[in-house]
Structures are given as C-alpha cells and as structure tokens.
Amino acid sequence: MKTTLNTQLNADLHCHSVVSDGTLTPEVLAPRAKANGVELWSLTDHDEIGGQDRALAAARALSMPYLTGTEISVTFAGHTVHIVGLGFDHHNSNLTQGLRQTRGGREERAREMSDGLAKVGIHGAYEGALKFAGNPELISRTHFARFLVESAVCQDTSEVFRRFLTENKPGFVPHRWASLQEAVQWITQAQGIAVIAHPARYRFTPNEEYALFTEFKNHGGQAVEVVTGSHTAAEAQRYASTALEFGLAASRGSDFHSPDESHTDLGSLPFLPSQLTPVWALLADRIQ
Ligand code: AMP
Ligand code: MN
Ligand code: MN
Ligand code: MN
Hints:
38% of the residues lie in helices and 12% in strands. The protein has helices at 26-35, 52-61, 93-103, 106-118, 125-132, 141-150, 157-165, 180-189, 206-218, 233-246, and strands at 11-12, 40-41, 69-76, 79-86, 193-196, 223-228, 249-253. The strands form 2 sheets. The chain has a 5-stranded mixed β-sheet with strand order 3-4-5-6-7. Strands 1-2 form a two-stranded parallel ribbon. It is globular and about 55 Å long. Bound molecules: adenosine monophosphate and manganese (II) ion (3 copies). One manganese (II) ion is lined by residues 71, 82, 197-198.
C-alpha cells in the first residue's frame, strides 16, 4: 500500500460518528473523507471502538488507508484531557475492558446533569438528550447540547456549552474518567500509539501542562496533535515547538462531529509543519 510517510499527507486521524457524539455513520463519514481528499483516515469515537469494523470496511471499499482509533476521556490534575489512540489491535481485551469501564457512569452523570438543568427550569433533558444518542452508553454533553438547541433554549451548541454545560454552570457535573497512565497503557499494550488530543483546549497552568507532557511521555505516550480543527494557526505553531521539545511525533485531525456544528470538515486542514515526525511514520505497519 502506497502511503507517503512524510508530513505532506492529507491524513485525518480524529473524528466522531453516531457511535459516540457525531451525527454521521461510519458509512457516511468514509466517502465524505474520501471526497475531501483524505489519504489516511481514522475514526476516533469517544471511549468506544464499536464502530471500528464498520469504518475499516467502509474505508477498504474506497481504497482509503485506515488506522484504528479512539479518543479516551482522562482526568489529569482535576481537568478532563483527551488521549487519542491510533493503530491498536481493536480486539485487545485489556483495551476493550478499559474502555467499557470508562463508559460506565455516563448514564448516572447524565441523570445528574438533567437534575441540574431542571433546577433552572429545563425539564426532561435526560430523555431529550437520549433521543440524540445513537449509543446510549455514550450519552454525552454534546447530546444535551443538541436537545437544548432543538428546544430553542439556545441558538447553537456553543451557546449551550457556554451557558449550561461547563464548570460552575447548571448542567455541569464533575466526573472522574480514566487515569492518564491507564489510557496510555491500554493503547500501547494493544500495539497502538497514544496521542495528546488538542492540547490548546485545556485550561492548565504552564506547570500543569509541563507535568502532563512529562508524565504522558513517562507512561509511553509518543505523539501530540499539532494540526487540529480546534487549534488556531498560532496554537499549531506553539505545539509544533512542544512536540520537538518533548521528542513527540505529531498528529493531524479535524475532530469533525457534524456538518451542522463543526467548523472544520474532514480532510480540510493545513499540512503538518515539515520539521515534525508525523505519527503515521511510526504506524506504517499498522495501516490497513
Ligand atoms: P463529554 O465527554 O460528555 O464531557 O462531552 C465532551 C464533548 O463535548 C467533546 O468531545 C465535544 O464534542 C463537546 N464539547 C466540549 N466543549 C464544547 C464547546 N465549548 N462547544 C461545543 N462542543 C463542545
Ligand atoms: Mn466530542
Ligand atoms: Mn476531544
Ligand atoms: Mn474529538
């Protein structure tokens, strides 16, 4: 299989389907990626690999090279961090069990979120959000956001997050996810590579961020997202330097969720800066 192993590759290694909080199925995402020129694709649903066989089959039918993927929710220094896993064996039982454990507790959290929203006069949010969840085990803040837009409480999902679903807002419920060490080890023990997702999105102090990168490396993490739909050009530049400083490979992914909500479509990103080692160079033998 011919895949360019340098940075000049239209790789999209971060997106979501109905198996987590995206609105499109793997079978619809694959041709959309292909039509947008994606040369290497990965579906990275939150805490869930139930869509991997479907995504792989859809990619194969289009002769589009594929890497297995997921995005694991982690609690680090009191904040939620996302760790993307790429190129793992998706039948690995440690990984499968770890993800199942991470998914557990979402239903209870969702009920508490709904109680919080009821206190400010928004009723039936649990049932409302559930209608939007293709996979009830993965009920997430995104599904609540879609319900509040549908109910005309807010104009768009960003407004919902700002007013209701972030820290100290009525629908926010703190949650303990996997540890950084667990997430990195589940991925690496399944022959995959762990990637820090969208680092500019976290509200860490410089010391906390340094600790995140240091501990991530110590646990066996090998890459960081540099070019993503949730980074500005300046943020991409900044994390290109961080990748070099920590000796990490670089990843690239749109974080596409939905044609109606996502600003960055599949495959529509600048290339990685050429001085970086692309994560796909480390995963050549895992590309399917
Ligand atoms: P959860 O895993 O339930 O905490 O939901 C997290 C998801 O919410 C993320 O993966 C994003 O898809 C979405 N999200 C988080 N913050 C925002 C925001 N400010 N605007 C829109 N979507 C967001
Ligand atoms: Mn999401
Ligand atoms: Mn994320
Ligand atoms: Mn994501």
